[in-house]
Amino acid sequence: MKTTNPLASLFGKSPFGPIQQHMRIVEQCVSELIPLFEALAVPDMDKVRACKDTIFRLEHDADEIKNGVRANLPASILMPVGRRDVLDLLATQDAIAGAAQDVAGLLSMGKLRMPEALREGLMAFVRRVVDAVKICRSAVDELDELLESGFRGRDADRVLRIVEQIDAIETEADRQGMGLVRVLFDHEAEVGPLSVVFWYEAVRTLGSVADEAENVGDRLRLLLAR
């Protein structure tokens, strides 16, 4: 009997198909942070809330795939990595979308104003965070090739180089975040103490998106070390 389960169909094509689909949705979710921040800079709170709604919807879509994979992933997989490793990778990917959702929820509250002193640095920061997730997605897209090569050889070397790119971007994003915090405290008098607390949390939460992308890279590195 032919299955009508779309996840089962994906597993039939590739054991990593749903994992890759999940990561693509996670990337879409995080990419929506750019127009959200652009709208906040205007400010256009209607656009901010629309971007927030899109991020929440995409995060929900990613959750649906995650839950489906957990329910349908075979207990025994004929490949060089274990079921637990695959599920750990999936959970780490999902944490990226969760962090993006946290950012969107925080920034959509009330009538916010982006401090002028932070504007340029914030936009550069959010774009670099999105870059980390895009590179992360490109690494996950290599899983089929890794499977064919037994997680060894040139394909493995290529993925390790991509993971190193993720690490480098996350390090750069970390520096940008720390720079923004310094600017924020330097302008505390004009920004106001409550806004300083809010924007500090916003920068910290945005940085966690890149942190989780790096964690996905670490998971891939562990898969290659098995």
Annotate the secondary structure layout.
Layout: H1 6-13, H2 17-31, H3 33-41, H4 45-72, H5 83-107, H6 116-140, H7 143-148, H8 153-186, H9 188-191, H10 193-225
Helix pairs in contact: 2-4, 2-5, 2-6, 3-4, 3-5, 3-6, 4-5, 5-10, 6-8, 6-10, 8-10
Assign an overall shape.
elongated
Radius of gyration: 19 Å
CATH homology superfamily: Phosphate transport system protein phou homolog 2, domain 2
Structural class: mainly alpha
Largest sheet: none
* CATH class identity: Mainly Alpha
What's the mean pLDDT score? Answer: 90
What is the chain-wise order of helices and strands?
HHHHHHHHHH
The end-to-end distance, rounded to whole angstroms, is 36 Å
CATH architecture: Up-down Bundle
Quantity of strands, as a count: 0
- Please tally the helical runs, counting DSSP H or I stretches of 4 or more residues: 10
Beta-strand content: under 5%
The figure for the number of domains is 1
Question: Looking at CATH, which topology would you report?
Answer: Methane Monooxygenase Hydroxylase, Chain G, domain 1
Assembly type: single chain
Contiguous low-pLDDT stretches (5 residues minimum) are 1-12
Architecture overview:
With 226 residues, this protein is an all-alpha fold. The chain has a single domain (14-225), classed as Methane Monooxygenase Hydroxylase, Chain G, domain 1 (Up-down Bundle), CATH 1.20.58.220. The chain is built from ten helices and no strands. The chain has helices at 6-13, 17-31, 33-41, 45-72, 83-107, 116-140, 143-148, 153-186, 188-191, 193-225. 38% of the residues are buried.
